[in-house]
Protein backbone atom coordinates (compact mmCIF):
# COMPACT_ATOMS: atom_id res chain seq x y z
CA UNK A 1 0.00 0.00 0.00
CA UNK A 2 1.04 3.58 -0.55
CA UNK A 3 1.83 5.77 2.42
CA UNK A 4 -0.75 8.43 3.21
CA UNK A 5 0.77 11.91 3.00
CA UNK A 6 -0.62 15.12 4.45
CA UNK A 7 -0.11 17.67 1.65
CA UNK A 8 -0.39 20.65 3.97
CA UNK A 9 2.46 19.30 6.11
CA UNK A 10 4.58 18.60 3.02
CA UNK A 11 3.95 22.16 1.74
CA UNK A 12 4.97 23.64 5.08
CA UNK A 13 8.10 21.47 5.23
CA UNK A 14 9.05 22.50 1.68
CA UNK A 15 8.60 26.17 2.62
CA UNK A 16 10.78 25.67 5.73
CA UNK A 17 13.46 23.92 3.67
CA UNK A 18 13.44 26.74 1.12
CA UNK A 19 13.68 29.39 3.85
CA UNK A 20 16.55 27.51 5.47
CA UNK A 21 18.41 27.31 2.14
CA UNK A 22 17.88 31.03 1.56
CA UNK A 23 19.10 31.82 5.08
CA UNK A 24 22.23 29.73 4.56
CA UNK A 25 22.89 31.54 1.29
CA UNK A 26 22.47 34.95 2.94
CA UNK A 27 24.69 33.93 5.86
CA UNK A 28 27.42 32.86 3.45
CA UNK A 29 27.11 36.09 1.50
CA UNK A 30 26.73 38.60 4.33
CA UNK A 31 28.25 36.77 7.26
CA UNK A 32 31.75 38.13 6.87
CA UNK A 33 33.99 39.20 9.71
CA UNK A 34 35.02 42.83 10.07
CA UNK A 35 38.53 42.03 8.84
CA UNK A 36 37.18 40.25 5.76
CA UNK A 37 34.88 43.19 4.97
CA UNK A 38 37.80 45.62 5.34
CA UNK A 39 39.96 43.48 3.07
CA UNK A 40 37.24 43.29 0.42
CA UNK A 41 36.72 47.07 0.59
CA UNK A 42 40.48 47.69 0.32
CA UNK A 43 40.69 45.43 -2.73
CA UNK A 44 37.79 47.14 -4.51
CA UNK A 45 39.21 50.58 -3.68
CA UNK A 46 42.61 49.57 -5.07
CA UNK A 47 41.02 48.14 -8.21
CA UNK A 48 39.11 51.41 -8.70
CA UNK A 49 42.26 53.48 -8.20
CA UNK A 50 44.23 51.31 -10.62
CA UNK A 51 41.50 51.54 -13.23
CA UNK A 52 41.23 55.33 -12.83
CA UNK A 53 45.01 55.67 -13.11
CA UNK A 54 44.95 54.10 -16.58
CA UNK A 55 42.45 56.49 -18.11
CA UNK A 56 43.62 58.44 -21.14
CA UNK A 57 41.82 61.63 -20.11
CA UNK A 58 41.59 61.67 -16.32
CA UNK A 59 38.59 63.50 -14.97
CA UNK A 60 39.49 66.76 -13.29
CA UNK A 61 38.25 66.90 -9.67
TrEMBL record:
Q: Per the record, which residues fall in region Disordered?
A: 1-61
**Alphabetized Pfam families for the sequence:** DUF4169 (PF13770)
Q: Where is the composition biased (Basic and acidic residues)?
A: 14-23, 42-61
Write down the InterPro entries for this protein, in alphabetical order.
Answer: DUF4169
Q: Please report the name of this protein according to its UniProt entry.
A: DUF4169 domain-containing protein
Q: Which organism is it from?
A: Pararhodobacter aggregans
Amino acid sequence: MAEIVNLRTKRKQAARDEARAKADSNAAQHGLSKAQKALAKARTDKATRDLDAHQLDPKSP
